[in-house]
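Below is how a single chain appears once it has passed through the pipeline. First comes the sequence as given, then the structure the pipeline wrote out for it. We keep one example in the README because the format questions we get most often are answered faster by looking than by reading.
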Amino acid sequence: MSDSPPSDTPARPGSSGLSIAGFSMVLSGFVAFMGIITAEVLYPNYSTRQDISDLGSTRPPDPIIHEPSATIFNSTMLLTGALVLVAAYFVYRTVDRRGFPVALAIFGASIFGVGVFPGNVTPWHGLFALLTFFTGGITAILSSRVVSRPFSVLCGLFGGISLLVLVSVFFYGLVIRGPHPLAFLGSGGIERWVVYPLVLWILAFGGYLLGTADTTLRRSTQ
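Resulting structure:
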């Protein structure tokens, strides 16, 4: 008589939700990264010293919109935000700590708002972009409380770097009233030090969720 478990042994509750959340997070990170790169390549004479949001539209009073970069960038933000919201829903259903999935949902909604309101739509674009940066860093740090070491250290590092650079911009602009130490990178370069740690966190956290769900499923069928 075989000791092998039946093939229809149910997975532990929550494993499928984690799989969907992880898949959505990894896909959203991929979409964000590749969408931005594609929009940059198709934008005439674009420099990474420029703001990332310039890809969708520059700011008033004389906004400049280049197609297809604008459509690609704005669609990228909409899809990325929607996928993060999907992940937040399934994380909320499976994770005990409610503060983290709520923060993740706000982060996703903020990204979505950046796509709805391009750079020429003031003040809404600036508000949603700022909310994206702040909630993204906070969410990454909060995620360190729902994962195990050593990955929790990386979550705190990614979120901490993003928030540190963001806060330093306001500190040097409003308090010191002097040039930022990273000013040689241009506003776009500094912004990327805020954004790209968050994109890396999205990809890494999504992979962690997929791995956790897979382990849970494997253990439940052994």
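Residues 1-13, 216-222 have pLDDT under 50 and may be disordered.

See the next section for the split statistics.
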